[in-house]
Amino acid sequence: MDISVYTARRARLMERMGNGIAVIPTAPEQLRNRDNHHPYRPDSYFHYLTGFGEPESVLVLLAGKTPKSILFCRDKDVEKEVWNGFRWGPDTACQAFGCDEAYSIKCFDEKLAELLADQPALWFSIGQDPAWDARIAVALNAVRAQVRTGKQAPEEIHDVRATLDNMRLIKDRSEIATMRRAADISAAAHRRAMSAARPGRYEYEIEAELLHEFRNRGCQAPAYSSIVAGGANACILHYVANDQPLKAGELLLIDAGGELDNYAADITRTFPVSGRFSGPQADVYDLVLAAQTAAIAAIKPGASFTDPHDAALKVLVQGMLDLKLLQGSLDGLIESEAYKRFYMHRTSHWLGMDVHDAGAYKRGEKWRELAPGMVLTVEPGCYIRAATDVPTAFHDIGVRIEDDALVTASGCEIITEAAPKTRAEIEALMAERG
Ligand code: GLY
Ligand code: MN
Ligand code: MN
Question: In angstroms, what is the span from residue 372 Cα to ligand 2's centroid?
Fold first, then answer.
């Protein structure tokens, strides 16, 4: 573990704060049922700044002339470690994670009141967790109660996420390296799924192939619930039941990505269960691929966040006219948003530690400009539910193609391209299934 990455991020945040105190807690453990917990995942902001993975931890930063990082974490506990595994303890964690001071989490509330006193500003993620809001309010009131002894509570409160989101939006070298590996593993999972699909197998069996590849290659978990949607299920955007049999002649849409060391990949591929696209399936597939190609061509530094979406939309809506899914003029249909019947989501979102990653999409009225180091998805789709006013040949065809784009100095790099995408590539891979 290269601790200097985290030390540098903390230094950068404190520089941006100028002065004051930041309080950044990690995520609580979550019960799944009775005394059984969900697998633990630290809070993305906390992990971004510390690399520390234990629950019940808080990072406190003191910005100013002598910036200081203070970690609060669980004590060593030999008995609990027998049951639940290793704990760093404050002393060892302090050194290993490059902090200036570390204390037991048991002292946190008392220490926080001391640390808040006479700080001009508090930086905290207000509203993220009501329990934390209340805890902070108690500490602030404890300082205010000492006003007659000369102590002062911070007068300003800032949402620390605004500053951190801007930092997280531009991925650094170590983040890009991890995201490339998450993308490679996820692309391999999609190849495995294509090889495993055949009529009569169940959607959950294909999900199992994805999970095998994620875990077998080192991902800790899927980055989000895998969507394995055969036939008409592809027209349900967040279909996660994954419990139906795959049928010959239908398409299978898979939206799945692994999470590696807290970074997500997000890939969608759509392919024929039997290995060959029918004519109408090919028409819709090629349309979505052409839309994606146009969107990718629009990704470059200085372009607006919405440029890839607008480029994809023009191609998609023209295609909907050509396939007689819609009638009217290109501009009129875009203006009236009539296309939303077949394409109801946007083309991109930021990608990083969270699958829908941190970062504002607009600054005031203006869409954000793309810059090197940003990572966004490119995921146009076309979802055609059966209806009397829709040509029968296209009924229940749902196609989405999703890749992850890293903005570079001259354009973008698709980090998920190892997942087969053209019809020829997909059919060739599936022909090898035997
Ligand atoms: N897999 C979630 C998304 O594509 O946004
Ligand atoms: Mn996505
Ligand atoms: Mn996706």
Answer: 20
Q: Taking the CB of residue 50, how many other CB atoms lie within 10 A of it? A: 28
Cβ neighbours for 147, distance < 8 A, ≥ 6 positions apart: 153
Q: Per the structure block, which two tokens stand in for 78?
A: 């030999």
What are residue 98's phi and psi, to 5 degrees? 65, 30
Identify the three-state secondary structure at position 360: coil
User: For the segment 210-249, what is each residue's pLDDT rounded down to a tens digit?
Assistant: 999 999 999 999 999 999 999 999 999 999 999 999 999 9
The token pair that represents 293 in the structure block: 């190609």
Question: Which residues lie with the beta carbon below 6 Å from any ligand 1 atom?
Answer: 224, 255, 266, 349, 355, 379, 402
Question: Out of 266, 307, 354, 357, which one is annotated catalytic?
Answer: 266
Separation CA 85–CA 97 (nearest Å): 19
Distance CA 369, CA 360 (A): 11
SS3 66: coil
Q: Which of 71, 78, 76 is nearest to 103 (CA)?
A: 71
Instruction: Give the residue range(s) of CATH 3.40.350.10 domains in the chain.
Output: 3-168
CA pair distance 424, 291, nearest whole angstrom: 18
Question: Which atom of ligand 1 lies at the shortest distance from residue 224's CA?
Answer: 1
Residue ranges, comma separated, of all CATH 3.90.230.10 domains in the chain are 170-431
Please state the pTM of the whole predicted model: 0.97
Classify 173 as helix, strand or coil.
Answer: helix
Judge whether 413 counts as a catalytic residue: no
The pLDDT mean for the chain works out to: 98
Please tell me the distance from the alpha carbon of residue 430 to that of residue 274, in angstroms, as a whole number.
8
Query: In the structure encoding, which two tokens stand for residue 217, read together?
Result: 């290659």
- 250 C-beta neighbours (distance < 10 Å), count: 22
Report CA(166)–ligand 2 centroid distance (Å): 20
Q: What is the dotted CATH code of the domain comprising 170-431?
A: 3.90.230.10
Per-residue tokens: 351 = 């990608």
Fold of 3-168: Creatine Amidinohydrolase; Chain A, domain 1 (3.40.350)
Q: Return the SS3 of 223.
A: coil
